[in-house]
Amino acid sequence: MARFGVARGREAPMKDTVSSRIVITGVGLTAPNGNDLPAFRSNLLAGRGRVVDMDVRYMGKVHAGVCDFDSRKYQTRRELRNSTRAGSIAIFCSREAVADSGLDLAAYDTNRIGVYVGTTEHGNVETENEVYNISQYDYDVRFWSHHHNPRTVANNPAGEVTLNLDIHGPHYTIGAACAAGNAGLIQALQMLRLGEVDLALAGGVSESIHTFGIFAGFKSQGALAHHEDPAKASRPFDKERNGIVVSEGGAIYTLERLEDARARGAKIYGEIVGYHLNSDATDAVLPNSERQAECMRAALRRAGLQPGEIDIVSTHATSTPQGDMQECKAVRSVFPAEEAAEGPHINNTKSFIGHAMGAAGALELAGNLPAFEDNLVHPTINLDDLDPECGLPRLVINNPVRRERVRILLNNSFGMLGINSCLIVKMFAE
Hints:
Elements: E1 22-30, H1 37-46, E2 52-56, E3 60-65, H2 77-82, H3 85-101, E4 113-119, H4 124-135, H5 148-152, H6 156-165, E5 171-175, H7 180-194, E6 199-206, H8 212-221, E7 246-247, E8 249-257, H9 258-263, E9 270-279, H10 289-303, E10 312-314, H11 321-334, E11 345-347, H12 350-353, H13 360-368, H14 371-374, E12 376-377, E13 401-402, E14 408-415, E15 419-426
Parallel strand pairs: 3-7, 4-5, 4-6, 10-11, 10-14
Antiparallel strand pairs: 1-8, 1-9, 2-3, 6-8, 9-15, 12-13, 14-15
Helix pairs in contact: 3-6, 7-13, 10-11
């Protein structure tokens, strides 16, 4: 008999768990400046980012956040040839999350494990590569890879995880633009509370730096960052900011109902106590500060919290002139300056690694989670000359700040087509 759920091959009863408390018990990640949470956190506190120049087809050198994880740790060479970069990132992060959580998947009915992976876009890399490949053969489609379809279906990153870990429960990829990391976690929480699964692997991934199209699109839009020093190209809130640094990466979490985590004596990183998703419905790319503020307020209401109870606000700010201004306007409306003495400290992680798209929210949450233990707020770096339009109460600039206590994090993540997400995580307490 399995320790959790029911034995393999036997149908599990559905549970009414709407009121269940959902906790984080494992974290696996890869970022341009770290391949596990301790390294990532250490570099954030030390002000060490990593953005480099890389060669992109048809464009030459561009700034990018590039990960350097061991893809062979959990996949064979043959599996990697048939896989996608997003799938490999998802597999690496999922395996690392399971190991970090101390879970024994053999003790579970794998029909009761769900995989929910957020992503901004998927399939462009593989399609661009195939078009380029057949261009070398006078566009003869006989040279088009038969692996193309499974590589490009929207559920690919989550599906690759189920194949690699032999998981039989529900899986899907959540397409929520750059709000997708938060959206993956929200979906997992809801499925756990509905009793559809007993364990969830959730978060976000991005392979975006491997498609020239995303760089070309941002450049055409006038939103691609450029700086003589790549390390300083991502500079949210700075007067000289001029666009996005595109990055790859991923962060996957193990989520469980509290009673299950307690039963196995799991380490608990934190409890998800509030969340919200909404839509601007005003513009495809320009954010709407009123809708962003509504998203934060709705998440606070769901959590039963007042703004003054938040200790850290992790901003989405991407280093675009208008985007940063709109979010700052929203944050100021929810956390007024006159209440700053009792309010949250505010930071930004993209200044270190650029914009990891569908992985951004999940990585940014991970970077702040250790604050529950060390009470430190990591800074925003590359902020040399604050834009007055981006002035925020208690914005942490260039050096970490120590609070007397960090108990509650609010994580913002917003995306194109006006999708907004907000996640609130609280230090676990009985």
